[in-house]
Specification:
Layout (H helix, E strand, L loop, with lengths): L1 H23 L8 H27 L5 E9 L12 E16 L2 E13 L5 E8 L4 E4 L6 E2 L5 E2 L2 E4 L5 H9 L1
Helix pairs in contact: 1-2
Length: 173
C-alpha cells in the first residue's frame, strides 16, 4: 500500500510542477504535458523502487550477514529488465551469530535468511557440515542437538563444495 501511495504522490507532484511550468509559459505548452508528467512520475517511482529494493533490504540486515544467492527477474511487461534484471528475492547467512560446538568443530549452526519483495522475511536455523559438504535444516519437533554436539533427526542435504552458503558459514565462523 505504501508503494502505491508513494507512486500516486510522485505522479501528483510532477503533474503539479508541470502545471506550474505550463502556467509560467502562459499556456504555450499543450495540456497533455500535465497527465504525461504524472504518468512519467509514477513510472519513474515504480522503476526506482524495484531497482533499489535489494540494496535497501540488504542494508537493513544485521551486520555480519552475507548474501549467498539472489534471484534476478526479467519480464516482457517491464522491457528495461532485459537490459538490467531486477532482484526480487535473496538468501543470506547470518555468520555473525554462527555457532560451533567444541566437540564438533566441523559443524556450524547458523541462521538462513530468506527475503522476497512484498513478503515478510523468514529465518531458519541450519547446520553446515564443513567437512562433509552438506546442510541440515533444523526444522521439526524431532530435531535436537545432543550433548556431544551431534545433530539428531535433521534431514541432511548434500551441497556442492562451492555452495556460497556453505562457504560463508564455514569461512566466517
Amino acid at each position: 500500500m505504501f508503494e502505491f501511495i508513494a507512486a500516486l504522490v510522485a505522479g501528483v507532484a510532477l503533474a503539479g510542477i508541470m502545471m506550474l511550468v505550463r502556467w509560467m509559459s502562459r499556456g504555450r505548452l499543450p495540456r497533455w504535458v500535465v497527465p504525461a508528467a504524472a504518468g512519467i512520475g509514477m513510472l519513474s517511482y515504480a522503476v526506482w523502487s524495484e531497482y533499489s529494493w535489494f540494496a535497501r533490504a540488504t542494508n537493513a540486515m544485521p551486520p555480519g550477514t552475507v548474501v549467498t544467492w539472489k534471484n534476478e527477474s526479467r519480464s516482457f511487461w517491464r522491457p528495461w529488465t532485459y537490459y538490467a534484471p531486477v532482484v526480487n528475492r535473496f538468501t543470506a547467512v547470518d555468520v555473525a551469530h554462527a555457532q560451533r560446538h567444541p566437540n564438533q568443530p566441523g559443524l556450524v549452526m547458523a541462521d538462513l535468511l530468506f527475503s522476497a519483495r512484498w513478503k515478510t522475511p523468514a529465518r531458519m536455523k541450519a547446520v553446515f557440515d564443513c567437512n562433509g559438504n552438506r546442510r541440515g535444516d533444523l526444522l521439526g519437533e524431532n530435531v535436537s542437538v545432543a550433548e556431544d554436539g551431534t545433530i539428531v533427526g535433521a534431514d541432511w542435504v548434500a551441497v556442492p563444495a562451492d555452495d556460497p552458503a556453505l562457504q560463508a558459514a564455514c569461512r566466517q565462523s
